[in-house]
Design goal:
With 226 residues, this protein is mainly beta. It contains four helices and 18 strands. The strands form three sheets. Strands 2, 3, 4, 5, 6, 7, 17 and 18 form an eight-stranded antiparallel sheet that branches. Strands 1-8-9-10-11 form a five-stranded antiparallel sheet. β8 and β9 form a beta hairpin.
C-alpha cells in the first residue's frame, strides 16, 4: 500500500532510460511565494574515444516571480551503461526558500543514489552519496524510501524513512551535505568526504520544508534508438 508520502514523491518524480538522445523533466514545483523549479535530465553519447558510454546531465531551472527562467547546466553528470534506469525528483524548498533539495538515482554498472541541495542565488549544488551516508545494514529498500522533510536549525538536511513491507526501518536522520569548498579541499588532501547520517535526537528542532505544491506537468519524455 502506498502511503501519502510515497504518493507525493511519485507525483514529483521523473524517470527515463539512458539513450542517445533522451530527456525527461520533473513536474514544476511552486513555493509558497511563487518561485517555480524543475529538474531536467538529458542523456546522450559521451563521444569518448575509448568508451562511447551514455552520459546523463542534470539541469535545474528556477523561475523567480516576475523574472525569466534561469537554468544551471550540468550541476551533475554521470557516465555509465546504455539503457540504465534513471529516476529523479525535487523534494522541496527550504523554509527560507533559498535552497531546493532533490534526490536522484541511477542503475548501471555503478549504481548511485545522491541527495543535493541547490542554492538558488549561487546557482550551484552541494551533493552527497546516500549509499555511503547510511550503514549497509540499512538496506537498499529503506534507502530508496528516504525523503527530505526539512532541515535542522543549523541547515543540515533531515531525511525520513517510511516503514513498508520492504523496509522495516522508520525514523529521521540529519545529514550535513558538504559544500564545494569542503569537497575541493578534501580532494587536494586526497581524502574524499563521505558524510554520515545521524539519527535525530530528542529535542532537536526540525524546520519543515516550505509548503510547496506541484504546479505544472512537464512535456512527455522523448527518446530515440541508439
Amino acid at each position: 500500500m502506498l502511503t501519502p508520502v510515497l504518493i507525493t514523491l511519485l507525483l514529483q518524480s521523473a524517470t527515463l532510460h539512458c539513450a542517445n538522445p533522451a530527456s525527461a523533466e520533473t513536474p514544476v514545483l511552486r513555493s509558497s511565494s511563487g518561485i517555480e523549479a524543475s529538474l531536467k535530465v538529458e542523456t546522450h553519447d559521451d563521444w569518448g574515444k575509448n568508451t562511447h558510454l551514455c552520459q546523463a546531465d542534470y539541469t535545474p531551472t528556477v523561475t523567480q516571480p516576475g523574472r525569466s527562467p534561469e537554468s544551471t547546466d550540468g550541476i551533475f553528470g554521470n557516465d555509465d551503461a546504455w539503457g540504465r534506469p534513471i529516476a529523479f525528483r525535487l523534494e522541496g524548498f527550504t523554509q527560507n526558500q533559498k535552497e531546493i533539495f532533490g534526490i536522484f538515482s541511477e542503475g548501471g554498472k555503478y549504481p548511485i543514489l545522491e541527495i543535493f541541495a541547490y542554492h538558488i542565488a549561487g546557482q550551484a549544488a552541494d551533493i552527497a552519496d546516500l549509499t555511503r551516508a547510511f550503514p549497509r545494514s540499512f538496506g537498499a529498500a529503506c534507502l530508496t524510501s528516504l525523503s527530505v522533510i526539512g532541515t535542522t536549525q543549523e541547515g543540515a538536511a533531515v531525511l525520513s524513512s517510511e516503514a513498508s513491507p520492504l523496509c522495516s526501518v522508520k525514523g529521521q536522520w540529519k545529514l550535513q551535505i558538504p559544500n564545494d569548498t569542503e569537497v575541493s579541499r578534501a580532494r587536494e588532501l586526497h581524502h574524499p568526504i563521505h558524510p554520515h547520517a545521524q539519527p535525530i535526537q530528542k529535542g532537536v528542532v526540525v524546520v519543515p520544508l516550505d509548503a510547496a505544491t506541484t504546479a505544472i506537468s512537464p512535456p512527455t519524455p522523448q527518446a530515440y534508438s541508439h
